[in-house]
Design brief:
Chain A is α/β, with parallel strands linked by helices and 477 residues long. Chain A contains 10 helices and 26 strands. In chain A, the strands form 8 sheets. In chain A, strands 1, 2, 5, 6, 7, 8, 20 and 21 form an 8-stranded mixed sheet that branches. In chain A, strands 14-11-10-18 form a 4-stranded parallel sheet. With 42 residues, chain B is mainly alpha-helical. Classes of the chains: A alpha/beta (477), B mainly alpha (42).
Chain lengths: 477, 42
């Protein structure tokens, strides 16, 4: 009987658990270790952050799903991995002694550590900024947002600044959704004239989203995501500053360095800035107690997999095979990583360096669809390994499609969303020798009420899939 | 070459027209399935 342990039950870990439980749960041991008792549907927290959705609508308990799928569940935080002795230690939720969980195969799918400490004054706990990166943060953002609403109702003018709070932050899509949803909500409340909305981001251009932007056909013409989303911002009265490396925030001002090396300040009344993501802190311990983290993780804490690391950007951009295919650690072949936890070989977007030496480089997004797909690939390969002894699945981000439905108002009557489909996620200039390196027949952008319906439908179908309900395997990640 | 974009009144009306958007909703679903089909999914 093989033992598979999965650390993390987000999109990547939970998707992998479902496939593994379905194929192996009755005959082998599948165990999920997770800090939370619930699965959280993170993409809907933009609506929680403006009070348009209750946080309970974005979660469901994991234990009944795992019981149905013959998966063991340990509610606690993984503290160390012992890859030579093949076990993980877990600090149980609510205290108590650490326990060891043995494995033959390990999937690390922890998601990110929200590294607020990397920027002075960032974050709701020890800083001054709001966040929608966890459920309690999204609720705190909502409360802070309502305070600003009260001010505007009293006739005061409020400055909102939304974007990224670190030069290497990722997940700009969530921030984009938040600022456009704030716009829609303020319009609905007839308070839009009382607010200034500003986008402040480390992207090299509006609409870059850490994927080097998108070129797609729109009304018969090739249009860039920069052009498309600039038009959206103009339409919504959002002003923007990009190529900004935020280095400090205090109670009223955001301090940044621009790509040209100049320093500047942005005053605010309400700000939500996405932090840098790093790997979740765990210790990696070898057979005789030595630190083996260099074999497993990069300096940022992300798990090294079968990528080609260390290539300069120009070479990475023209080498699609530098991106991992199996998500397998090269040193410990029974250790895999999926979702945000795996270390990408480098950025997708053009990295910038200021004259002062500050690197501004939006990190590659590995959330949502990419997380689910990488979780499925690892799960199918583990099923292969356990049943046949060899792996037969693989998909690089240069072979992967992704859809991003960026909500711009949740209402099913007058809401909107920008629907952006990209294939492949990482441009492959060998297969698609055009300006964007992507398939222009699949890559697509549009905006409208239909996108708002899509966003709601996707939440409903994903919650159905991730509960392991009938037909779940038919719904793509 | 990319085109600089401005939304026209016609675009705005199209984005909120329920009938057109229902059609676009169907098209978007098909486009997502096409993207998934093109994806390697090995």
């Amino acid at each position: 009987m093989a033992k598979v342990v999965i650390i993390g039950a987000g999109f990547a870990g939970h998707t992998a658990a479902l496939y593994l439980g379905d194929a192996l749960g009755r005959d082998h041991s599948i165990t999920v270790i997770n800090r939370f008792e619930d699965f959280w549907y993170v993409p809907s927290w933009v609506w929680v952050g403006i009070g348009r959705m209750k946080v309970d609508q974005t979660r469901f308990p994991l234990a009944p799903v795992y019981e149905k799928m013959h998966i063991g569940f340990v509610h606690g935080r993984a503290t160390s991995v012992h890859p030579d002795d093949r076990y993980v230690t877990v600090a149980p939720d609510g205290g108590g002694e650490e326990q060891g969980v043995d494995y033959d195969y390990l999937l690390i799918a922890t998601g990110p550590k929200l590294n607020y400490e990397a920027t002075e004054g960032l974050g709701p706990a020890y800083g001054f900024t709001q966040s929608i990166c966890t459920a309690p943060h999204a609720e705190a953002s909502r409360d802070a947002y309502f305070e600003q609403i009260s001010r505007m109702e009293r006739g005061e003018h409020v400055r909102f600044v939304i974007g990224t709070g670190h030069p290497s932050a990722t997940c700009q899509g969530a921030a984009f959704e938040y600022i456009t949803n704030i716009h829609k909500d303020l319009v609905r409340r007839k308070l839009r004239d009382k607010a200034e909305l500003r986008w402040l981001s480390n992207e090299q251009a509006v609409g870059d989203f850490g994927v080097d932007g998108v070129l797609a056909r729109y009304k018969g013409e090739i249009v860039s995501s920069e052009s498309f989303l600039s038009a959206v911002f103009r339409e919504y009265g959002v002003v923007w500053d990009v190529q900004r490396a935020v280095h400090k925030v205090d109670e009223s001002t955001i301090y940044w360095e621009a790509a040209d090396g100049t320093y500047g300040e942005t005053p605010y009344d309400f700000t939500m800035l996405i932090p840098q993501f790093t790997g979740v802190e765990m210790s990696y311990v070898g057979a005789d107690g030595q630190d083996v983290s260099e074999r497993l993780a990069n300096p940022a804490g992300f798990i090294k997999v079968d990528a080609i690391y260390g290539l300069p950007y120009d070479r990475l951009r023209t080498n699609p095979t530098a991106w991992p295919e199996l998500y397998q650690n090269p040193y410990y072949e029974n250790v895999f990583a999926a979702g945000i936890a795996f270390a990408p070989p480098g950025p997708i977007s053009v990295p910038l360096t200021t004259p002062n030496g500050t690197k501004i480089s939006a990190a590659p997004p590995r959330t949502g669809m990419v997380s689910g797909i990488t979780g499925r690939i690892v799960a199918k390969n583990l099923i292969d390994l356990i049943k046949n002894g060899r792996m037969s699945h693989g998909e690089r981000m240069t072979e992967m499609a992704a859809a991003c439905i960026a909500s711009m108002g949740d209402s099913l009557w007058d809401g909107s969303a920008a629907t952006i489909m990209i294939y492949p996620v990482v441009p492959d200039f060998r297969r698609y020798p055009n300006e964007g390196g992507r398939d222009t027949f699949v890559t697509h952008m549009e905006m409208g009420l239909g996108g708002a319906w899509m966003k709601r439908m996707i939440q409903a179908t994903f919650m159905h899939k991730l509960r392991g309900r009938i037909g779940w395997k038919l719904i793509p990640e | 070459m990319t085109k600089e974009l401005e939304f026209t009144d016609r675009d705005r009306a199209r984005m909120n027209n329920k009938l057109i958007q229902f059609f676009r909703f169907i098209v978007l679903n098909l486009k997502i399935l096409k993207a998934v089909d093109r994806s390697k999914r090995s």
